Amino acid sequence: MEGKDNHTTDVIIIGAGPVGLFAVFELGLLDLKATLVDILDKPGGQCAELYPEKPIYDIPALPTVTGQELTDRLMEQIKPFDPTFHLGQMVESLAREGDVWKLTTDEGVELRAPVIVIAAGGGSFTPKKPPIAGIEAYEGKSVFYAVRKMETFRDKHLVIAGGGDSALDWSLNLQPIVKKLTLIHRRDDWRAAPDSVRRMKELVAAGKMELVIGNITGIKGDNGQVEAITTDKGDLVCDRFLAFYGLTMKLGPVANFGLNLHENLISVDTEKFQTSEAGVFAIGDICHYPGKLKLILSGFHEGALMAQEAFRICRPNQKLRFQYTTSSSDLQKKLGVA
Amino acid sequence: MKVIATDQNGVRHELEAIEGWRIMEILRDYGLPIKAECGGCCCCATCHVYVDEKWIPKLYPPKPEEEDLLADAVDTKPNSRLSCQLLMSAELDGIEVTLAESARP
Ligand SMILES: Cc1cc2nc3c(=O)[nH]c(=O)nc-3n(C[C@H](O)[C@H](O)[C@H](O)COP(=O)(O)OP(=O)(O)OC[C@H]3O[C@@H](n4cnc5c(N)ncnc54)[C@H](O)[C@@H]3O)c2cc1C
Ligand code: FES
Residue A155: CB partners within 8 Å, gap ≥ 6? Predict the structure, then answer.
């Protein structure tokens, strides 16, 4: 996943939520290869990030399925089509380049394809800022809300704030390479995998990291360089600060792709789910048309119809045939069940 | 049963409430500007409201998770609550809430 990727695929899907994932299946049945990009480090979109353990009751033929189970089942269903995933990357721009679209991520990866599918849901998940006055001046210099390169923290005095999986996982991952690590959380109560909590406590007991139960009151430093995080338990001297306060969804760069929008949603037709640009489609929560319902069910339907037009664009000289998975040996071969 | 909601622009709305509904759901049902991103999972704080002082004693006190989320919101005041954690009941008929700026979609 590192470096430039000039690999050309049939379809690039922005967003690996349930709708982006199922689109891989519908495209795959038509022999179209898909590549997905998501800023999250895992597939599943809202289902995996916001409600992995909540049951969903309105998925046809699945009387009850949790957000994570639905994601896992979709991943299993699209496995035969072997899609490429670029996770942990934000799609920043979309531009026409000859016959294809060129998409660029914040990691500098360039992807090209004749068809783009925007399945960006409620927008890209972005970190929430901690409510510390003046913290903006330090962002990106010595204060971070995500870990992009572990090297940024090597031999540093690091303070991590938060009580969820991200705070715990990064404490465990970075502890071996930093000079000193302090984890601060408001209460000794964690929204994280019990095993991570146990391992963190072992490191604390062994004197390999420090745990402070307290409240952050401010930040001290100069010129973007943090010198201490101030708390009601005293100052925590540090030169790097990582804060994990959860994620929120923001429309983000998709708003600047030059597509027709309707109140922060992308306008599409209801036959092909194409946007105002030929070859660029929008499906799932991000698209808008009269009567649109933000349901997973609706997103699946939108993906199926989109795939038909994607085929016409990618394979202009081939005939599109309508087939059932139950009876077509051709489709069954693609699915690896024949 | 009513909820009196003042939106971020200071406009007052009288909403018909249903027993057992979360106040967040009532606000959203009437199309008031409330993001409620996590859909009531008590994990986003984008359903933040200020409850009129005289109603505070009638509310169940916040759970630790709600307190944590409010502590991290930028515009928290002593009368802040997450409206997805407030269930409508006869006791609360006429409750007055004001939508916080941080709840704007
Ligand atoms: C609490 C809750 C309960 C729900 N219950 C139900 C239910 O019972 N039934 C139902 O049908 N629906 C339910 N929904 C709604 C359902 O989750 C959504 O309709 C569904 O997730 C939409 O899927 P999607 O793939 O369109 O978008 P999402 O799931 O939002 O996924 C979009 C993905 O795109 C990524 N992305 C966006 N922009 C970029 C970019 N520029 N670069 C990289 N990545 C990007 C995002 O990070 C995200 O992962 C519920 C939602 C919530 C919050
Ligand atoms: S809706 Fe997310 S905390 Fe209330």
Answer: A177, A178, A179
